[in-house]
């Protein structure tokens, strides 16, 4: 006999039984499970740090089904955990440990509803896989620029709920900047239909921004109208060794100016990150013959129908950078296969860290002008309190975002290392705040950073956030224990 999630919990809360049975009727026999083995992937975060329990997993097919089940949960005071691809790095899509919540997976709501090439918009359901969304835009000779390592499993609803960043923020902005309209189920079961593909609409408050980045605590995003762009016709990529982080920042400024701001990607990668990827990920190759401390992956993009000249511009930028000492070695991709080989190194950074062992994630942002200062200052202070720690700091320095990750030493004790999470993170975050930065650039707050948010965010901001939460979800049933 298979074990189920509800046997012990509902014995203590018999009022749950009626509500749960009615929810099952709403979604049908294929729309729910309380089998513990089937539920396990939904109850465990991607990094395997936390595992929780839930009453059941519900997989609705329509917005109307979600509205009905939310209404029932509101009546029964049952908490809801909205979940997309469950790729969160902050525990934002995982239940608490009460076992008295239901997980609402958007996976079956995965359709592309409409592509409007002339309006440069695409409308999709929240469970649409990011890669499928990109492909749908491409088939219409358009381009959806949100791109991140988990795009093969991440769902757009989760991307919007966390205001995801990714590798193209420098040119196109965060997920929030790509949204024109939303459809959202509110905490009382009402449906807010804001699915409009308008770039100009001054009819009152721009309500969609309440839900973008709110991590499912104010409503469940069920569909979105998103901006798409002219499809790139030419992409030029280079994998460059630079002497230090300061040189990388200087190179970025020069590349933006001399390319006519055609830089789409500018990613910093340290040698240790490259070593970990090559150690754990098959068929990865070092693009350069010699080893260096720091690298950048730079891409120039053009959507011009005629020769844009960006290839020549990239070569000129790198040639001048060689002469000035900003670049000490480089490889320019000659074809798409070589370009993808560069990206394989960058996109497997998090996966290789996960395989290597325990790590403490610091997803921070500071002004681009202070990236190098932050990098060195934080590392000096961390090394003072733990000489054996390994720094794997990489990321989107074109928009000021570093994944300043601390990796356990090769023979370190996992539990002892993770027990120092607050100590290490406090060192990093104090410097971030001192430099006018953010303790969460693109990953969100979730479960893991609530204390830090309350500590570093000013009181007025926290009061406003609390007021909004209390107004829109007075019973606190939407993703409790996250953000606020």
From TrEMBL:
Keyword Flavoprotein appears in the UniProt entry: yes
UniProt source species: Candidatus Endolissoclinum faulkneri L2
An annotated Gene Ontology molecular function: catalytic activity
Domain of life where this protein originates: Bacteria
Protein name: FAD linked oxidase, C-terminal domain protein
Protein family: Belongs to the FAD-binding oxidoreductase/transferase type 4 family.
Domain FAD-binding PCMH-type: 50-231
Sorted UniProt keywords: FAD, Flavoprotein
């Amino acid at each position: 006999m298979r074990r189920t999630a509800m046997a012990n919990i509902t014995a203590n809360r018999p009022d749950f039984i009626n509500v749960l049975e009615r929810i099952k009727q709403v979604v049908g026999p294929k729309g729910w499970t309380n089998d513990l083995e089937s539920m396990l992937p939904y109850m465990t975060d991607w990094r395997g740090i936390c595992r929780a329990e839930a009453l059941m997993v519900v997989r609705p097919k329509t917005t109307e089904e979600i509205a009905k089940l939310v209404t029932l949960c509101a009546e029964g005071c049952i908490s809801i955990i909205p979940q997309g691809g469950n790729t969160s790095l902050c525990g934002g899509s995982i239940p608490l440990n009460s076992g008295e919540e239901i997980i609402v997976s958007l996976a079956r709501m995965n359709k592309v509803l409409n592509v409007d090439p002339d309006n440069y918009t695409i409308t999709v359901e929240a469970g649409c896989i990011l890669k499928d969304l990109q492909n749908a835009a491409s088939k219409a000779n358009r381009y959806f620029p949100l791109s991140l390592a988990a795009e093969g499993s991440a769902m757009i609803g989760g991307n919007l709920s966390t205001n995801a960043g990714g590798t193209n923020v420098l040119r196109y902005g965060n997920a929030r900047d790509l949204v024109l309209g939303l459809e959202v189920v509110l905490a009382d079961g009402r449906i807010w239909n804001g699915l409009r593909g308008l770039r100009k609409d001054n009819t009152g408050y721009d309500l969609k921004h309440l839900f973008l980045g709110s991590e499912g605590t104010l409503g469940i995003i069920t569909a979105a109208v998103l901006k798409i762009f002219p499809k790139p016709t030419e992409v030029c990529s280079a994998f460059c060794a630079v002497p230090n982080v300061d040189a990388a920042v200087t190179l970025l400024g020069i590349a933006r100016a001399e390319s006519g701001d055609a830089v789409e990607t500018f990613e910093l990668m340290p040698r240790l990150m490259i070593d970990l990827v090559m150690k754990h990920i098959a068929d990865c190759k070092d693009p350069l013959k010699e080893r260096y401390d720091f690298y950048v992956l730079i891409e120039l993009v053009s959507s011009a129908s005629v020769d844009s000249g960006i290839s020549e511009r990239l070569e000129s930028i790198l040639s001048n950078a060689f002469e000035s000492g900003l670049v000490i070695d480089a490889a320019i991709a000659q074809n798409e296969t070589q370009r993808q080989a560069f990206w394989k190194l960058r996109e497997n950074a998090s996966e290789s860290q996960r395989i290597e062992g325990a790590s403490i994630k610091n997803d921070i942002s500071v002004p681009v002008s202070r990236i190098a200062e932050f990098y060195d200052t934080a590392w000096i202070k961390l090394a003072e309190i733990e000489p054996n720690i390994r720094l794997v700091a990489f990321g989107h320095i074109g928009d000021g975002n570093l994944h300043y990750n601390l990796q356990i030493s090769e023979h370190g004790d996992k539990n002892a290392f993770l027990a120092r999470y607050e100590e290490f993170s406090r060192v990093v975050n104090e410097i971030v705040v001192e430099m006018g930065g953010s303790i969460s650039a693109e990953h969100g707050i979730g479960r893991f950073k609530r204390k830090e948010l309350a500590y570093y965010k000013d009181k007025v901001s926290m009061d406003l956030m609390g007021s909004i939460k209390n107004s829109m979800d007075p019973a606190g049933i939407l993703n409790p224990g996250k953000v606020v």
